[in-house]
Amino acid sequence: MSQMKQFDNIPSTPGKFKMEKSSPYIHRLRWHSSLVKLTFWSFVFLGMILMFLYKSPPSTSSSSSTPDPSRRSLWTPSWGGPAWEKRVRSSARVRSRNGLCVLVTGAAGFVGTHVSAALKRRGDGVLGIDNFNDYYDVSLKRARQALLERTGVFIVEGDINDQALISKLFEVVAFTHVMHLAAQAGVRYAMQNPSSYVHSNIAGFVSLLEVCKSANPQPAIVWASSSSVYGLNTKVPFSEKDRTDQPASLYAATKKAGEEIAHTYNHIYGLSLTGLRFFTVYGPWGRPDMAYFFFTRDMLKGKPIPIFEGPNHGTVARDFTYIDDIVKGCLGALDTAEKSTGSGGKKKGPAQLRVFNLGNTSPVPVSELVSILERLLKVKAKRTVLKMPRNGDVQFTHANISYAQSEFGYKPTTDLQTGLKKFVRWYLSYYSGGKKSAQ
């Protein structure tokens, strides 16, 4: 009670509160007040520090210098300035008659690296952009970057969601085409990090289209969709005319969303858009999360590998497509892409809208893939047969490629035995023969 009376004696106007200096209560009150002030200002200063550290570098004009590295964002690498713009223009310079000027997103990725190199070899202007995320071994992406730099392709480090950066690239270079390959890949990883798929595959695509629609002239856009959009469809082979409204995974759903978004931007803004549905791409410089890649790694280490089977011991098969065949399809789509019909965000007429399957048309059981690797690696695989998990994967894929054949002569020529032989040769050279080790 005495404690309650002590609080009752405290007036509502703290400034007029008086008590003898010797009172223990006043010392406690002053200590409490000081602690509150200290805590408040600590949070204020912490907030100011965080704002400083995370502040993105200011956009720079062509006459400005490169931002001070000490003010560089923790997440977005600095860009801009005369030296940077010179590298951008040099990389994007067209060196062949009637050549294309192409912005390749996801240029440090598996398909992006091969497509960029192929375009550069034939004299097209090529500029890459990649955010070098850590979904898989970043050192492999850096090695691909070094490979492209030796061919004259500059990769700008940045995110496709950064509209200021993308707009700046279009300000510096008048791209005739965009090869949009940047995406969050992988079916199973979507169960662990779904937001990354929405951020990259949907928001990132929209951000890119927003810049392209306002460009003058608008570029023609070819982008990577996925065979995964066929989802629960059991018809074989898959045709572009089949329904794709039952995606089996979030990854497939984001890719399907991309196709619908493309239709909208084509309809409203006159953007020329071509979607490519890739079927299980493999080959040198491939992705470590793909079965053929980690099978090779684990077989060489003597580790067991999982062989999935469908219901009632059904075979799991894939339409494995070698990277060189995919590149031919990408270039064919770029070469036959018509000009966009809009300008500055305004549509002036109907624009081209296409979707193609790019596959090998020869599904191979995963067990046969392992047998081929056994012969090439000269090791016996420790197979562990498991039921197919409910993670969004489908039991089989098989591409009908007649549309791509009729439109630009797409014709895959590499069988799985030949393609895996080339992959194994690269793998042994890159990992076993060099200083790197597979994780």
From TrEMBL:
It is a multi-pass membrane protein. It is an enzyme of class 5 (isomerase). Belongs to the NAD(P)-dependent epimerase/dehydratase family. It catalyses: UDP-alpha-D-glucuronate = UDP-alpha-D-galacturonate. It comes from Dillenia turbinata. The lineage of its organism: Eukaryota, Viridiplantae, Streptophyta, Embryophyta, Tracheophyta. This is UDP-glucuronate 4-epimerase. Residues 102-339 form the NAD-dependent epimerase/dehydratase domain. GO terms for cellular component: Golgi cisterna membrane. The chain crosses the membrane at residues 35-54. The keyword NAD applies. It holds the Pfam family Epimerase.
